[in-house]
Design goal:
Elements lengths: L1 E5 L2 H18 L4 E4 L6 H14 L7 E4 L1 E3 L10 H8 L8 E3 L8 H14 L5 E4 L21 E4 L2 H7 L12 E4 L2 H5 L3 E6 L5 H9 L17 E6 H4 L5 H9 L3 H5 L5
Parallel strand pairs: 1-10, 2-3, 2-6, 3-5, 6-9, 9-10
Antiparallel strand pairs: 4-8, 7-8
Helix pairs in contact: 1-2
The structure holds 2-amino-2-deoxy-6-O-phosphono-alpha-D-glucopyranose.
């Protein structure tokens, strides 16, 4: 796990976007795994700027989103399909986007289809992730099997409360979701996890320096061969080895500094 601590969320988002840019330039047919929530918004804004100002080309890129609420149609203001359209897809030129279908009639069959679609696309090159306050990734709540695949999950009350801000009332927040599993996420070639703000500090420390446990699903990323974590100062505050992570980043060999992906 490479941990990059930046002075601000904006600086972190810029580095994250440069990592995505680097991949898309080297592998124009890249498969990106995408995330919703407040955390990746700055990164999406930066990629949109790169599209407009630098002509970054997404015309051969395919995307798969992590999760979606069960029962929300794609046009619902709080659906993750709508979030992705408004914050990213409508502003770049990606032809093939996938967000789990929250209206699927046969959810287990749909989840199998989603897994197969990822495999058929060649697997995910880079999976963008945020982290929940309780250490969830995607919507894999504590207790999720660390080998799980795409499936239906029931949200914890804490996650319902955290996501209430996107809905008119707490009663409207769906209790069920379709999410890529922890095992699905672990199959990605690179994971890029962003976390900003003091409210994430505890989850970040548990993820990076705590035991690997289903009680903190993000902790399984310690077993991933290539995970990059980008934090701001506040989110890094509970890390015991923050000074070492800064030292590593400041002293990266030149070949690693220039590019995250081999040519
Ligand atoms: C939701 C999403 C996650 C996201 C998390 C944190 O649970 N399913 O993918 O990482 O919220 O959201 P935020 O970035 O808004 O803090």
């Amino acid at each position: 796990m490479e941990i990059i601590i930046q002075p601000s969320a904006e600086a972190g988002a810029r580095i994250g976007a440069r990592i995505v840019e680097d991949l898309v330039r080297k592998k124009p047919e890249a498969v990106l795994g995408l995330a919703t929530g407040g955390t990746p918004l700055g990164l999406y804004r930066e990629l949109i700027r790169m599209r407009r100002e630098l002509g970054l080309d997404f015309s051969r890129v395919t995307t798969f989103n992590l999760d979606e609420y069960v029962g929300l149609p794609p046009a619902h203001p709080a659906s993750y399909r709508r979030f992705m359209r408004e914050n990213f897809f409508d502003h770049v030129n990606i032809p093939q986007t996938h967000v789990p279908d929250g209206m699927a009639k046969d959810i287990p069959a749909y989840c199998e289809y989603y897994e197969k679609a990822i495999r058929d696309a060649g697997g995910i090159d880079l999976q963008l992730l945020g982290v929940g306050h309780d250490g969830h990734i995607g919507f894999n709540e504590p207790g999720s099997s660390l080998a799980s695949r795409t499936r239906i999950k029931t949200l914890t009350e804490e996650t319902v409360a955290a996501n209430r801000r996107f809905f008119a009332s707490e009663a409207e927040v769906p209790r069920h979701v379709i999410t890529m599993g922890v095992g699905t996420i672990m199959d990605s070639r690179t994971c890029l996890l962003l976390a900003f703000g003091e409210a994430k500090a505890r989850a970040v420390a548990a993820m990076a320096e705590g035991p690997i446990t289903a009680m903190c699903p993000a902790s399984i990323l310690q077993m991933h061969p290539r995970t990059i974590v980008i934090l701001d100062e506040a989110a890094s505050r509970s890390l015991k080895r923050a000074a070492y992570y800064r030292h590593v980043y400041a002293n990266k060999p030149a070949f690693q500094r220039l590019s995250a992906f081999p040519a």
